[in-house]
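Handoff note, outgoing to incoming analyst
You'll be picking up this chain. Sequence as last confirmed:
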Amino acid sequence: MDLSANNRLPYIDLLRAAAILYIVAVHHLDDYAGNIYYIKYNLITYLVLGLFMFISGCLLAQNNPINNRGDLRGFFYRRFLRIYPLYVLALFLFMLCSLVSFKDVLLNISLLNVVFDKSVLTLWFVSILCVFYIIYPLVVYRYSAMKTAMIAVSLCGLFVLLKDRFGLLDERLLRYFPLFLLGIVFEKHRLIERYIYNRAFVGGSALVLIASISLYIEAPRFNQVFLILLMVSAIPLLMAIGKSASTIVNKKLYVNIAYASFCMYLLHRVIFHLATSIYSSGSNIHMVVYLTLLAVPVIYITSFYLQKYYDRIRTKRVDRYMGDCDPKHPASRYTLYL
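Most recent structure output, in case you need it:
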């Protein structure tokens, strides 16, 4: 997404920035600092990842209607060019740092890791997101709420069957699919705008969230069900908090972090790995300070400029494609030069 795009939503950027800072600077940094931030029931991480999936579905539905074959071709070209090459780059960087094997790289490039439950550390999230991108046109083609509900139930049933009967699928596909669908539905029906300031709706969701957290802890046999419920019920509350906070927090503090968030997610383990190979201490406090003050800013700066320069290349490729498909499209001017 272009940094200067007019359709950026401040509260979405604020939530994305806060979420990626938590994942990078707390949750995963902890792996390199002796679990100094350890929490027994780390539900914040699930809420953050669920929020990312919700936002992905929401933004896709906002910008990518699918009504014909042209829309379908354009969607796959634009959206996979947006995330897939960077994902492949991250896989090879992981391999160069000996975090994964070449076999892992090949399996994850093909996205078969999701089918055979062989995903690699951290990057599993992006591979699952790619699978959701593949499913997205099926969900929104000539969208109607009834059709989407039928498809969602059918897909969830298929996922459960493959997992329980054949031992296939990364279970996180099942866990986060409802959040992705919820993002699509919220955007298609403008539910955020309609209910974000409805105290009864947000308050009711908060009560369901509290009950779900209690049931998740007290009923471990069904904790995956309650985990999905608590992630879903947290969305209205998080949206309301983000909407309110975005009116008082200066955009300069978060918009660039939100812009760099995808590359920050892809690259942070590689940079943490390099940083800890340069310096390592037996003191967890020292490692937290070192990684927070040095590695985290490097992750942000590297990610921002990688995303910026990649977007320049990607935008020209997309414009060329659009110009080739429609000679009357303003972007057709690029065709002669690329």
